[in-house]
Amino acid sequence: MVASNEVKAKMYNDAFVLMEYFGYLRRDAETAGFQAWLNYLNTRPNDYRTMVNGFMNFIEYRKRFGRP
């Protein structure tokens, strides 16, 4: 458990982006994509919906269900 609000604030977006890669794409994040999404969330801290939508509509994710 994170006891420091400063540590939580710094690491939350990193963990959230990584969780999206594992959850939707079932793989590790590539550096460029991870950094792009992290930058997006750091500049728009309340817009998780756009990122989740991006992962859900990503071809790699949709192919898992037979719909590219």
Descriptive account of the structure:
- It contains four helices and no strands.
- The protein has 68 residues and is mainly alpha-helical.
- It has one domain.
- The mean pLDDT is 90.
Q: What is the CA-atom radius of gyration, in angstroms?
A: 13 Å
Mean pLDDT: 90
CA-CA gap between termini = 39 Å
Number of strands: 0
Shape descriptor: elongated
Structural class comes to mainly alpha
| Biggest pleated-sheet summary | none
Name the helicity range. 55-70%
The count of helical stretches stands at 4
**pLDDT < 50 runs, ≥5 residues:** none
Query: Total domains, how many?
Result: 1
- The amount of beta strand, in percent, is under 5%
Element order: H for helix, E for strand: HHHH
